[in-house]
Amino acid sequence: MFWFWFFVGPAIVLAIFALRGERRRARFVAERLAAGPDANFPPASVIVPLDGAGDDLGESLAALSSLDYPDYELILAARTAADIPPRSLPRHVTVVLGGARNGRAGNEARNMLAGVRAARKRSEIFAFAGAGWRVQPTWLRALVSPLADPDVGASTGFRWYAPEPPDFWSLMRSVWNAPIAGLLGPGDNPLVWAGAMAITKERLFLLRIDEMWRRGANPEGAVARAIHGAGMQIAFAPGAVSATTGRTGAREFFGRARREMAAAGAGFPWLWWSALVAHFFYCGGMAAAITAAARGYRGAEWALVVQLGLGMLKGVNRAAIAKAELPDREAWFKRHAWVLAWWAPLTTWLWLWALASSVFTASAGDEP
User: Fold this and answer.
1) How far apart (Å, rounded) are the C-alpha atoms in residues 88 and 62?
2) In 9, 98, 156, 322, which residue has its Cα 20 to 30 A from 243's Cα atom?
């Protein structure tokens, strides 16, 4: 049955290579967390671009205002003052306004540029943090440490959804998000996340990343293209992973998934295509195995078990890595880590849907 092996063969091979990558990433994360941050910490500006309702902004800013870092300032950049929830600002924060849309830059890029313009002169590092994400005290140290390597142009952390109290769609978002975290590991990385990103001031202006943002480029895609175009690397900082306890519903989940994949297609096209091809074979392999089993094809059931088992093992590994990166969320992982394994096959289909439907969706970076 040619069509059976056409899907099942590549699906199993891709899953095996992905699982090997997860094991390699686990070793890297353990080594980096055990080593701790380096001792050289230049003055820094932490910029929080507020793009949206600002849920949990108060707790996020409280954590960012008490980081274990010798010399930094905290800047909140919002479109208008009305976007800032009342009683959400700590004492040591500077507020700047990006203003209404003027030109091609989207809300997030405008606010990031406003924060860069307002930063104090002596700061040597620009770090960007997501509004509503709860960081650990050593978050900034972890982000800044890799920049001491001359081959590293930017550093990035990532996000983890740990909803409290959990419900179906909020947990589904956590499982759906986990494969993106799986892209980040040792060596050069393909992407940055604007919610946990650091770059030297000199490099940001030298590579004209600010100009790319003004022209309407996706903020994360612009940084990645500029860094890689200059022959430098993007370093992943496991200690800069952030968490949120927020929840979501079905409508918000599907809408956000489409927009994120549309933004990925605009900012990281080769990643988008590789994800589409991989999930085409993952889902095709599952469908082919189920169909062949229903028709009595010998061995089809075992092919399905292998595919599902490899996907679930990847989920177990991702949960273990995230638990190490977020020690303050240990209780959450003890209760809900099983979801990362058992729901992995279902989210594979959601990934295929999100990628395919994103072709007809405006990216988040293009929204007014």
Assistant:
1) 9
2) 98
Residue extents of the structural domains in the chain: 2-26+253-366, 35-252
Q: Is the whole model's pTM more than 0.85, yes or no?
A: yes
Instruction: Report the distance separating Cα 239 and Cα 96, nearest Å.
Output: 28
Helices (H), the chain: 2-35, 57-64, 107-118, 139-144, 168-181, 201-206, 209-214, 219-229, 250-267, 269-294, 300-325, 330-342, 344-357
Confidence check: pLDDT of 298 > 80: yes
Answer whether CATH 3.40.50.720 is correct for domain 35-252: no
Q: Which residues, other chains included, contact 102 with Cβ-Cβ below 8 Å and sequence gap of 6+?
A: 110
Please state, in angstroms and rounded to a whole number, the distance separating the CA atoms of residues 357 and 368. 21
Length of the chain as a residue count: 368
The 10s digit of each residue's pLDDT in 184-209 is 999 999 999 999 999 999 999 999 99
**What is the three-class DSSP state of 161?**
strand
pLDDT digits (tens, 9 = 90+) for 134-169: 999 999 999 999 999 999 999 999 999 999 999 999
- Residue 207 has φ and ψ, to the nearest 5°, of -85, 0
